[in-house]
Amino acid sequence: MAQPAAASHGWPDDPVPLAPETAPVPEYATGSLGDLLPTLVAGQEVPGFTPRIAELAPADRNCVFLIDGLGWEQIKRHPDEAPYLTSLLGSSRGGTGRPITAGFPATTATSLASVGTGRHPGTHGLPGYAVRNPDTGELMNQLRWKPWTPPRAWQPYPTVFGLAHEAGIHTAQVSSPIFAQTPLTQIALSGGTFHGRLSGEERMDFAAEQLAAGGRSLVYTYYSELDGAGHRFGIDSDAWRGQLMFVDRLVQRLAEQLPPRSALYVTADHGMVDIPFDERHRIDFDEDWELRAGVALLGGEGRARHVYAVRGAEADVLTCWREVVGEQFWVAGRDEAIALGWFGDEVDERVYGRIGDVVVAAHDDVAITASVNEPHESAMAGMHGSMTPAEQLVPLLEVRS
Predict the structure, then answer these.
(1) Cβ neighbourhood burial of 340 (10 Å; 0-12, 13-18, 19+)
(2) What tens digit of pLDDT does each residue of 37-83 get?
């Protein structure tokens, strides 16, 4: 049987690959998620920290409410469903009315590690949804933490919460009880006291109580269901809009309970885009002989892939991926992506081999799925991970008391 030609993807016979240097690199060190907590605790005089997001004024009590999947562009497009959040858009990033960036890849495990450690992906070492463990050669899913890997060996740096607690700041995390003992919580969000609360309303009320419990406080709270609705139904669905309406009420509930001398920051780990269910927008790696050639492992996720080549085939795999998908994806070799700053200013030695030999980031509304090996992820309506504004830009809405 004849093998399909590259033109079967629906693109021109001679596409011009996107130049990797045109990818909009996150605003590391001055305006990304990894810069938020260091800036807040610097204002609380925790030793060893300096402000990075220059627009933020210090406060004695800081609360970060991270809403999974609440991108900047999604708020702007839904003023009717999110009137309170919309009213706060001008407060973002210290009153500049501008967003911050999530970091690359724009995905939950990477972003939460950036938030909690105050470091960027190249140093904290969670540079994607699923990456190769150089010690075992296996893919390690960093959100589900499978296969089991010792957490402190994988991410050895202290958390900002822990350092703040040691400095005398009243520090607390208020989230779903299911996250209390997860490895991701241990390596990114531990320090102080974890408080499990089931409902969103309970989390808001208890976060406000914890904020008032110290003269200097650092409180983190989290809500995940908006992201879940986006993945399952898409951000153009009634289910997602209903979740956004609920989130809007939660933010207002918390804001109205702030104790004196407090700052509430509402942010997110990433935005999201809907990917149509057709062959042009969803390229199935498991069914594509060209993309599979010379590939030992496929990591990452649909819109931000780490491609690990068979030894000796790295250059050929890079060339092939650029030829086949380079018109709609930024495609870079590992060293090129690192030099361009995709993972931050530095990449630790222990992290280097976790990054793909080829790194692929979506430019258009497309995804590289894997129907056989990733059936759940491949069936998602909404996806994220890349450096497009819809995924990368997140709010930093502010309410002060």
Answers:
(1) middle
(2) 999 999 999 999 999 999 999 999 999 999 999 999 999 999 999 99
Are 210 and 219 in contact by the 8 Å Cβ rule? The answer is yes
Cβ pair 299, 353 in contact under 8 A:
no
Tell me if 52 sits within 8 A of 345, measured CB to CB: no
- A 10 A CB-CB count for 311 gives 9
Which residue in 401, 58, 55, 164 sits closest to 262, CA to CA?
A: 401
Per-residue pLDDT band for 13 (boundaries 50, 70, 90) equals low
Query: In whole angstroms, what is the distance from residue 359 CA to residue 229 CA?
Result: 28
CB atoms within 10 A of CB 336: 15
φ/ψ of 272, rounded to 5, equals: -165, 155
Tokens 């995905």 belong to 107
Would you say residue 196 has pLDDT above 90? yes
CB-count burial class (<10 Å; 0-12, 13-18, 19+) for 308: buried
CA-CA distance, 387 to 342, in Å (whole number)?
Answer: 9
Please state whether beta strands 262-267 and 397-400 pair in parallel, antiparallel, or not at all (unpaired).
antiparallel
Structure token digits, residue 230: 């986006």
As a whole number of Å, the end-to-end CA separation of the chain is 70
Which tens digit of pLDDT belongs to each residue from 92-133? 999 999 999 999 999 999 999 999 999 999 999 999 999 999
Contacts of 99 by beta carbon, 8 Å cutoff, 6+ apart? 72, 92, 93, 393, 394, 395, 396
Q: Return all residues near 10 (Cβ < 8 A) that are at least 6 apart.
A: 279, 280
The CA distance from 26 to 219, in Å, is 25
Give strand ranges (E) for 135-209: 139-141, 170-175, 193-196
Report whether 268 contacts 66 (CB < 8 A).
yes
The residues facing 329 across adjacent strands are: 362
CA distances from 21 to 130, 157, 333 (A): 24, 30, 12
Mean pLDDT of all residues in 129-157: 97
Do 318 and 399 touch, CB atoms closer than 8 A? no
Tokens of 316: 């050929």
Q: Say if residues 33 and 52 touch (Cβ distance below 8 Å).
A: no
How many CA atoms are closer than 13 Å to the CA of 130, on its beta-carbon side? 22
Q: What is the percent of the chain where pLDDT is above 70?
A: 96
